[in-house]
Structure formats: C-alpha cells, structure tokens
Amino acid sequence: MKHLKAFEDALSAIHGEGRYRVFVDLQRHKGRFPKATARFEDGEREVTIWCSNDYLGMGQDDHVINSMHDAIDSFGAGSGGTRNISGTTRYHVDLEQELADLHEKESALLFTSGYVSNDATLSTLGKILPNLIIYSDALNHASMIEGIRRSGADRRIFRHNDVDHLRALMENDDPNRPKVIAFESVYSMDGDFGRMEEICDLADEFNALTYLDEVHAVGMYGHNGAGVAEKLGLASRIDIIEGTLGKAFGVMGGYIASHETVIDAIRSMASGFIFTTSTCPVMAAGALASVRKLRTDEGRKLRSMQQANAASLKQKFRDAGLPVMDSPSHIVPLLVGDPERCKALSDTLLFDFGIYVQPINYPTVPRGTERLRFTPSPVHDEVMMDELVASILAVWKQLGLDKAA
C-alpha cells in the first residue's frame, strides 16, 4: 500500500506517548448493569463498569426495550434513507415534539448523533448569518469546534468559564455583526458547570444568540430532566439547545431544539441532516420512551439516587486520600497526571480486579492532566464503591503515584 510508513509513524508516535487505545470486548447483560462480561484472549471474566455514559441505566430499562421491540415489529430495522427521500415515521415526529416540549421550545430536529447535531448546526449558522462571529469556550467539545471551523464564521475562543474574557472579546468587535456564544452546561472531563446566567446576560447586552450543548445534562438535571437550563430556570434565554439521546437517555442520536423558524432553516440547509440516513425508527421509539419516563417521578427518583451515589464516591475518594478533582456535577474525575501510569492503572484494575474504567488521556484532556473518569449510576451500591476504592489504593501504591495533598 502506498504511504504506509506515514500511518506506521503516526501509530508509533501514539504508542510512544502512552495514549494508544485498546477497545475492551464487553458483553453487557440485560437487567444486570453495571455488571458485564469482558472477553480476553485467554478467557472471560465478570467486570463492573464504572465509566458508562448511560448515566441512569436507561439502556437497560424494560419500558425502553419493550418500546423498541414494538417499533421493530411494526416498522422493521432501518429507516430506508434520508427523511427527504424516504419520509419519516410517527416515532420521529413524536420524539421531536416531545423534545421541543421538554426544552420549552417550539420545535426540535433529530440527528444521528450528538456529534453530528453540533457539527451540522454550528456549521450551518455561518451560511444563514453572513459576517457571523462565534464565541466559543476553550473547553468546548470537538464536535462544536469542528462545526465552528466549518461554519466559515470568525472565531473567538474565550478562556474556560471566563466571562470577563468573553466580555472583552465582545467589546472589541463590531456591535452590528451577528454573534453566537457557544458553550456547554456540563463539561464532561472536569465535571464543572458553564456560567450560564452570566453568559445569557452578556448575550442580551451584545445582542448575541446563545447556543448551549446540554449533552451531559439532559436527563440528569431539572424537574423534567431537560438539563441545567431547566434547573436554573434559564431555558427561555437559550436560543438553541443541543442534546444527545445516547447518554442519560440510554439510546442513540442527537438533536437541537429552538424556535420553529430556526429549526426549519437548519433542516433545510444543514448537509449533516440532508445527506445522512435518518435515525432508525427503533432508536427513535426507544428514545421517546426514555425521555417520557425521565419526565416522571420515577425519573426524578433515578436522578436523585445517581447524585447521591456520585457524592458518596467523591467522599470515599477524599477519605482515602485519592486526588479526586473538584466537580459539582455527577462526574467523578480522579487525577493521575501521567499517560503511561494512567493506562497502567486502568489495565491493572481491569485484569486483576474486574473493574472497568477507561483512561482519559491527550487529546481529550491536556497533557499532564490524565485521569480516570468515573460515572456512578443509581445501581452502583456501597459494596461496589468500597471494592473500587480498595482496588485503586492497591494499584496506586504499586505504581508509585502520589496521594492528594
């Protein structure tokens, strides 16, 4: 093959930096989450999953699964193509209406993933708003960065959660140019919250649109599980809300919710929507069931249990002297600070203790901040937590890692 050495060199560099990733073959078992079977070359063993983004276990929920069975029995497997060519289904329509209502918006639009919804929407805003400036938080997700890059708009990167820096950038620009502030509600690697109210105040002052990524917050916060904007009572001040169906809702897909005219324009112009096979009806049906359930008292109970377990695990790490990073959200990051030892810690926990948690290395996080990222669910119990802490302590000492100051 031509140019093969370039590929070999690229892989060699990744190996040399200790950030080569190996996928673990996991067989999840319905009704037994967070337990799973890991398959290795020399056999199988039961493991406990500690890093799933299915935060509430809705991918295992009987109501969700039964809804998907009904859909596949009625409609078959695939969607048959794009919605422009192959039409739509009642599941797509009902789900979009449910998501719009969830976020207190007029309309919503489904995409095949949260990555695509960010990329497609942000890139299209540059076509709709000539001379646009997009202000982007420095820690925004790669999908947002890619969409902003492809938009053709002028970009301004403000320091993470630094509203003073954002203000300074906005003051320096032409007040007559259209502007969008793009930020997240929960930043998934550090687990901190975006400064939403202050950003909305700046948007009002400078006549800017607000674009909010709620992917790690939908299902998790607010009375109905609409996210941090709902929790803070700020949904009406957010112009475009983007979310995912693949994390707390437990299925797959992404979406945006906004004013009906905004959604119609994105639907009509976004190549990431127009030229992509639509979400399978079975996925839309499962997501619809999940969204509806998480708007009930049962959903509120799951959120409460998850938050309690996250707080408990953080405290157990602190009590053990482990360097848990400050995080006000449901995400529990444990700082390691070295890529090779971070991977060694993850590997040893898996192979020796049956604990599955993936290392988070560069480029997902900056070099020197490598970490393990734990996401306790409502069904991780105290025994599992105590076993986790004891196992980490044993490997921590073995690797010569430092305890918290």
TrEMBL record:
Catalytic activity annotation: succinyl-CoA + glycine + H(+) = 5-aminolevulinate + CO2 + CoA
Keyword Transferase appears in the UniProt entry: yes
Pfam family, one: Aminotran_1_2
Keyword terms, alphabetized: Acyltransferase, Heme biosynthesis, Pyridoxal phosphate, Transferase
UniProt GO BP: protoporphyrinogen IX biosynthetic process
CDD domains per UniProt: KBL_like
GO molecular function annotation: 5-aminolevulinate synthase activity; pyridoxal phosphate binding
Domain Aminotransferase class I/classII large: 46-392
EC number: 2.3.1.37
Subunit and partners: Homodimer.
Descriptive protein name: 5-aminolevulinate synthase
